[in-house]
Every structure is written in C-alpha cells, then in structure tokens.
Amino acid sequence: MATKVKDLPHNTEAEKAVLGAMLRNKLVLSDALGALEVNDFFEENENHRAIFNAMFRLNQRNLPVDAQTVTDELINAKELEVSGGPEYLLELADSVITFSNIKSYIDIVKDHSILRSFIVTMNDIEDKYHNKDIANISDFLRESERKLTAITDKRRIAEFKKAKEVTDALAVEFENLKATTSDDTVTGVPTGFPKMNMLTHGFHENEFIVIAARPGVGKTALSLNLALTAAQHGFPVAYFSLEMPASMLFKRLVSGDANVPFDDLITGYGLNQNVRLKLQQSCARLATTKIYVDDTSGIKLLDLVAKAKKLANKEALGMIIVDYIGLVHAQSGNKNENRQLEIQTISQTLKNLAMELHIPVIGVAQLNRNVESRPGGEPMLSDLRESGSLEQDADVVMMIHEHKLTDESSGKPNIFEKQDKAVNEAQQQIIKKEGGQDTKLVTVAIVKNRSGRTGNVELLFRKNYCKFDSPSRELDEQITALEKERINYFKEN
Length: 493
Fold this sequence. Notes:
Helix content is 52%, strand content 11%. It is an alpha/beta fold. A 9-stranded mixed beta sheet has the order 3-2-4-5-1-6-7-8-9, with helices on both faces. The chain is elongated and about 95 Å long.
C-alpha cells in the first residue's frame, strides 16, 4: 500500500531555518545552493519550494539575495501568493538566531528528502510486484538495486578539506611511518616481487590497477600470484573469474604452491603417494587464506559491484581482482551501445569501487594485436584493447610481454639476426637451468604509475606451474651481461 504524500517524512522547521539563513547570510546561501535542490523541500511545502527557486534564479544571475529581491522575483514569476508573501519572507529571516547550526539543518532537509525518495521507490517496487509487472526477476532486482543505490549515493556530499585537516592527518601518518633505507618498502598490499615493490611500494587503497597482455602470456597466473601473496599477508581478496571455474583457479594455485606440474594435476600422471601428500598439504595451506572466488560467467557490472560491497560488509576486504574486464557486461539497456563506451563505464565503475571501499581494485585486460607486429613485441598504453578509458582511469598500468626476435621481413641484416638469436638462446639456457624447461623470461612493464615510478620488472614465468618467480641475483646478473653483449655487438657493427 503506497504511503500518502502528507505522511512522508519531512521537517518543516528545518526547511524554514535553512531558507531564513539563506536570506541573511551569503555563505549559508552558497552552502545550501550547493547541497540542496528544490525537490529536497517537501512536496506539500509549495511555499518553500517557490522561495528556494527564486533564490536559485537570483544567484544564477549574480544578483543579491535578500527579502526584497526575492519578493520582486516571486512577483515576476507570479508565485508571491503561493510563497506566503513578503510577511512570510520576513518571518523566515527574523526566525534565525544563529548561523552556527545551519549545516545541521541542511543535513536534516537532505536526509528527509532521501528518505522520502527511498520510501517512494520501495513503494513503486512493491506495486510492480503486486501488479505482476515483472518480466524477468533478475533484471527487476538489478534495476531496483540501481535505483536504491542512486538514491543513497546522493547522501555522500563531499566537503572541501582544509589544509590543516589534511596536514594533521599526514603528521600522524608520518609519526607512525617506520624509518627505512630499503627501496622495496611496501606501504600497501605487497606484490610478492621485490622489484615490483620497489617501483610501486605495493598496491594502495583507492587505486585502480590494470594488468594487460596478449593471450597466453600469463595475465591470469600473475593475478592469481598477486591474490595469493595478498591473502598470505592478511589481506582478504575478492576474485571475480569470468573465464574459468573456481576449482580450476585453485588447481593453478595448488600447482604453484606444491611445485607439482599443472598438467599432472589434470591428467593424474605421476601422482604417487608422496605427491598426493604434497597436494593435500597445499590444500590445507590454501584453505587458511581468505580468497573469495566468484566464477559467474559474463557477470553484469551491477552484480559485480553489489557482490563486492556485500562481501566488504562482512569481511574487511584488502583487494579486488576482476579477470577479465573484457567479459564484464555493463548492461546499459542500450544493446547498440558502442563497446568502447561500455568499457568506459566498466572502467569508471571499478575506479569508483576502489575509492568507495578504500582498497586496490585490479582489472585484467587484453592488449590488441598491434603489439605482435611491433619489433621486440613491446606494448604501449595505446595497445589497451577497446578503450582509452582504461588508460585514463587507471592509477597503475602493468603490461606483460616476452621479448621476441625480429623476423627476416624487417630488413635487418642477417649478421644481426644471428647475434640476436645467439644471445636469446644463451638467455634461455640459463633461465631453464634455474626455472626448469617450461620457464620463460617475461617483462612486466609498469608504464603508468600515479603514485610511484615506472620501469621494467623481469620475472620468470614457470608456465607449467602457473606461477611467477623473481630471478635470483646471479641469474639477473647473467641476463644483464648478455644484454650488454647484444648492445655492444650492435654498436661495433
């Protein structure tokens, strides 16, 4: 049963206090016009709506706002009678004793407006249910949640922060900051890789991080490594997997943790009693981590956000990972909408989610094919598939790639190609010696970093164990020496 308009929540006295203060104080006028809209005043208080509208119009024209100018504006708009006339305006102005509590009255007016909208929307939802006006329950629930979220979001009115407020908070932060001389100090969620920590200092609250690569290079493996490291350090992780089920994700984690080839877990090859024990022990270790997996295929953006917020209310989330962005559906309602605009919506929503929950959100993305035709295969920000919005919204962009030999069609002299090939073969020999036969050297290029440095992080991708490792210092020195050999050879020739 719908609530009658007159029974909806409102506070007439608070509305009167706000309007009276607006007539007498320019600062209050600016605050109120910035925080309130005409519909925030109760529908049956037509006089208050008319007066607020008149003050709004005067302010838009840069005219003074007082009892006389508002009276003239109401006369011109033929709303003087409905407003209560000059007598009511003077009553409003005279009723104000102090301006110190006006902020509270503005909040009261806003809160009652939001509560009214909430109740009206709930009534509309109930009416649709009783009238059997629901074609699809899932769509109905998503749309209902969207409407209710839009209403409650209006309550989040941000204020300017004074310099003293910010610096006082920083002083406390600096007081508690541990003195260190180490470059790899982590101030956020640790990555598990010293060189990556050195550049990023970990992933921080409010950050939207994009990890991008071509298919098969290790996007999912790296995101899983990051999830496991975070969870092992006490940061609960929500992992949205749109490509593979939760069981397959954890098989990958078990493979790396137990150091058992992933192929063996799939086929059962060589799983003797000792290996099975290692797998059981790994499962027991992983069971203690707080990794929450949602493997809904083709998840809708609103569902993803709702699930993340619901989990955050139950668990102090430390990080969210979405694998991958290209499979999320924004569901704007327009089937013909450009995919780039849809990706833009997804990107901005994930950034907003990071800001709202105050945690890092990682989105896995795909690079376009341009990177494959580029000498060396090094990616650029422009290679992010489908949208430049990812580049704009992301605080950190990390791109995974393998060094590729230039082919003969490039016109490069054979003598250089032979040297290139010889150096790469030497690299692969020392890499396989440390990491195993199925190990590749990959570069994680941090090409954008709002809060830190950019640069390259060399990692070993042990593909059959679904894990990344940092090269040992010895291996790192050997690889560097071979690169110098390559460079010097080209210079001399």
